[in-house]
Structure formats: structure tokens, C-alpha cells
Records
---
Amino acid sequence: EAGVAQSPRYKIIEKRQSVAFWCNPISGHATLYWYQQILGQGPKLLIQFQNNGVVDDSQLPKDRFSAERLKGVDSTLKIQPAKLEDSAVYLCASSLQGEDNQPQHFGDGTRLSIL
Amino acid sequence: AQSVAQPEDQVNVAEGNPLTVKCTYSVSGNPYLFWYVQYPNRGLQFLLKYITGDNLVKGSYGFEAEFNKSQTSFHLKKPSALVSDSALYFCAVRLPFAGGYNKLIFGAGTRLAVHP
């Protein structure tokens, strides 16, 4: 089966600019996750969708970050405006169901550098 | 606070020797525990999980992990290391979340270096 697809792979922007990331989960996976992975740290969950509804966005900095999953498939994560501390790898993952003990499948991520 | 700890930033082992990557957790209730591996410029790949039952769990690429409830540990092991096992390893615990949906809390990661 095709894996989780993310684009772009790399992005370099200046602080205060805007950026958007795209994710296409594995077909049939109802649950989609966005993680932030800062260098030297483990991934931190930003937001979790079940189909097109948000079930956890408690760690999403809502003053600058937004995410949507309009048709319950693809998702976009946006940062506006970006800050230096947003430099990180943004990982998208998906799983069959959020409640199950099914593992999450990760994309290769988008590496964001803020100048 | 609920957390996952990986006490070693890096583990060095010679090829052919056994390896252990340590993980301890601090959560309430009975957690689900996972190990993931990350190769350079790639996403995380699932290795194995403990949900319930036998404390020794076998996973991909010859890896296994032992769940120890009294020590709140879930150490990753492999009897004979390969150079290709060199990567970043993450331990994670799944917590219950209000509303019924679970989320993963990851440790900071341990870099495994296997030398020829």
C-alpha cells in the first residue's frame, strides 16, 4: 500500500512569512495526526483529526498555527506568521482508528527552516 | 505528569553483540507502549507494541522488547546488532484522552550506533 505522502520535503522562509504543508494519509485511514519534531527531541502532537473533525488540538499554538481536513482525507497545516522557534520537522501520520491500538504510520516529513 | 524517559542519548555497540535501548514511563493506568525507529531524513517506522499479555514482545527486523510493570520499563533489545540498525529509536506511550481518542507521548529518542 502507498504510504503517507507529504509535501514539500523542505522549506526555507524568513520569519513573519507564511507557510503551508500538505499531507495525504494512507487510503482508508480515518485518523490523521500532525506532529512537530524539533531537533534532538521526540515528536510532539500538534493536532489530531478523526475523519474531518478535530479531536485534540490542545498543543497547537492557535494564534499562528491552523490545520484543516475538509473532506476527511488530505490535510493542510499552516503557520502564519512564522517564528524562529518554528524551525522543525513537521510529520504527518495516519492510523485506521484513533481508539484502536493500531500503530501510526508516518510520512517522511517537511523540514522547515526559518531565517 | 505523564512522561516517557529514554535515559541514554546514544548507545554504542559492536556488530554482532546484543543491544539494549532503555525506556521508562510514568503514567497512570495501563499504558500501551510502542517502539519506533527513524532513519535520517525519514519518518518514524513502527517496530513493535505492547498492549497486554506476554511481557516479551517480538517485532520487526529481529527486535524485541520486555515490559516490566514493577519497574515501569519497556526496554528494546536485539540479540545480535547489525550496522544497518544504526538509527534513532523512540519509545512512546499511548494515553487515554477525554472523548475516547488516544494520543502518543514520545521520549526524546536514543541514537544507536553499531560499529563494524
Note: Chain A is about 0% helix and 50% strand.
---
Amino acid sequence: KQEVTQIPAALSVPEGENLVLNCSFTDSAIYNLQWFRQDPGKGLTSLLLIQSSQREQTSGRLNASLDKSSGRSTLYIAASQPGDSATYLCAVGNYGQNFVFGPGTRLSVLP
Amino acid sequence: NAGVTQTPKFRVLKTGQSMTLLCAQDMNHEYMYWYRQDPGMGLRLIHYSVGEGTTAKGEVPDGYNVSRLKKQNFLLGLESAAPSQTSVYFCASSYEPPKRYEQYFGPGTRLTVT
């Protein structure tokens, strides 16, 4: 059974810092991995989707990498801003199975 | 184009009461999902549907029932609410494979059972 963990559970950084969020999964036979953003009291917004054949995806200041062999993905946020404050969740899709979500990392970017 | 909408946004129930959560999507998606989110945990799949008239159990189905009578709607029912069902419930929808993982989420329903 796929298990997904995220470290750290919470992170607080000053504005302007570059930061890395980590996602680990136990079953490397994945179809894809997705990073979501969740603002307080809101639903989930997809940030980046990495297919199993890809090593990374980029969108603006965000870069997500995938290393299937080690069961890891990282989300890199460059030049963080207070507007980046949110909870970031990763979700893993295995072939023919439903998404398994990690518990999330709560990010606070201080002005 | 409203995307995925959920009704109601908030609800407080007493133990033993019943209620139905409504999810609607206007993207003509085949697949629809109900998740619950508890503090410190990721989203867990309750039930899902791969098309009109179909339902299937997810990871945590006990205490819930679902129906998909129309393609655009997916209903989640609690027949006899328990305090353990206090949670935030999210609905999502997607196209069929290979796009089943490109899911669109509703804003959530915060349910408290006292």
C-alpha cells in the first residue's frame, strides 16, 4: 500500500528566501506525482504535475523534481513571498489506483 | 463555468442525525470523488464514481453512502452521524484515464458532529 510522507510538517521563513519542501513515497511504481496548494478554508489548487517519465516540472518560481528510484519529490520555491503562505500537499498516483495524499507542509513566509 | 461546487459550506449535526452533501461539476467529467481531511493528515478517499450510476469504495467508506444519479452530481450521505465524522469534506472531479489524476477540487464542506 502506498504511503506518502512530507517533511517538514511546518516551516517558517523570512521573505526572499529560497526553500525546499520534501515528499517521500514508499511504492516507486507511480504513474505521476502532483503538488497542490491549499489556502486556509479553501480547496486544493494544482501547482505542478510530474509524469513518471519526467524528472522535473517548472512553473514560474516553482520547480518540482521527481526521483522515483529513491521515492522522493521536492518542491523548490524561489524568492519566497508572503503570498506563498499556504499548506502544500503532494499526492501520488499509482497505476490503476486512486491518489494517495501526504499530510502536507504548512508554510509561513514572514514579511 | 463554476467548476466544482459543494453545498453546504458549513454544517453542525448532533450525533445520530443524517445529512447529505451535494457536489456538482459543470466540466462534463466522468470521475468524481469524495475525500475527507482531518488535522495533520492528508486527504483520504471515502468513495468515488467512474461514471453516472456507478460508485466504488475508497480508503475510508464506513459510515457513508453515495449516489451518482446524474453525471454532474455526486451525493455523500451520512445516515447516523458520529463525532468521528467531524471533518472537512472535499469533492473532486476528473476526466477518465489517462487524465484521472488531473483532479479539480471544490471549496470544501466543514462538518461538525456534536
Note: Chain B touches chain A at residues 4, 33, 35, 40-45, 48, 58-59, 90, 92, 100-103, 105-108, 110 (CB under 8 Å).
